[in-house]
Each structure stands twice: as C-alpha cells, then as structure tokens.
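quick one before i forget lol
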Amino acid sequence: MKQLFLCSYFAGVKSLFKQYASKKQLGKHVLFIPTSGNVEEYRGYIDEALQTFADLGFQVEILDISACDRETAQAKIFQSKLLYVSGGNTFYLLQELKKKQLLSLIKEQIADGMVYVGESAGAIITAKDIDYNKLMDDKSVAEELSNTEGLNEVDFYVLPHLGEEPFVESAQDTLDTYSDQLNLLSLNNRQAVLVEGEEVKVLEDK
C-alpha cells in the first residue's frame, strides 16, 4: 500500500511524524536526500530536518544524488524502507532524479511498501507535473530538465508554505493562478498530508 508523508516544513511537524513513525513501526534508518538544497543560498531547513530525525532516534544516511553515480543511487534507494526528500529547488531536484533514472525506481519502491517522506520540493514532485511551481522556484537552474513530469503518485498538487515567510507572495500567486486549473492542496508549515493507499488526510501539528 502506498504510504506518503508530505509537508511544507519537516521540523514544523516533528510531533506528527513522531506519531506516524511509531504507528507505522518505521524502524530507525532513513535514507536522506538533500539534493534540492544544492542550488539554494539558505539551507537551514536541511540541518533542521537532520536534527529532527536525530532527536527522534533515527540513523540518517545522506545520499546526494547529484554527487554519486546512477548505480549507487539506485542501490541505496532499492535497499531503503524509509526515504526522505528535502526541500529546495523543485526543478533542480527533478532534473537530478531524472538524470540518474530514479523516478521509476522510487515509484516501484513505494508500490513495494517503502515509506516516502517529502518536504516542500520533495512533496511537490509527487504530483503528476511540477510546472505549476515555477512561481515559487527558479526554473532556470535546471537547464538539463527537458520535461516537468513528476512521480505522479498523488492526484493533487502540494502548495507548500501558504501564508509563510518568505513565500507569502509566491505561494499566494500560485494559488491565484492555478486554483481553477489544478487540484491544489495547500499546506502551512505546521501541516502534513498523509497518503495511505487512496486515503488522503491533512493533519496539523499543535
């Protein structure tokens, strides 16, 4: 059964993930992909996500898919039971995943029971297509990205950081532009969406 935990800001939903991990008996090993932060000036949220996993007792294995060969990336993902994909630039992330031919493997692993945790960019790429996010992210950093088709694991389009600095304007612009065209699911920094099979639930961290 498909199991996804998607959020805007992982550190902001720490207690939700703690409950989720306990309920799902996720074990204590996570494969952590920080790649989308490579082209961002600010990367503090990646450190905070690492700290959140550490606080919850997880052993973190970091895999920067832009810095390793395709075989290594595929082998690590194939062996993983819990995959976390960080925030950052969504288009750059998708480019690097496609360069290493990882999308179909991630889909196969999700179908086989791997739990997928996505923060911001990592949540957005679960949609059918990520082009709608061009108002929030700079598309030009992904010069080798030929198409914007995502994982197509959900029938909605995550809109992270609604009402949250520094994304107040770009998130609202995205909502105004695409709300009539796409099934947008907006999240603030204390909300997460849980996907279990066909069931979708939005929870808020108190």
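fyi The CA atoms of residues 135 and 173 lie 7 Å apart.
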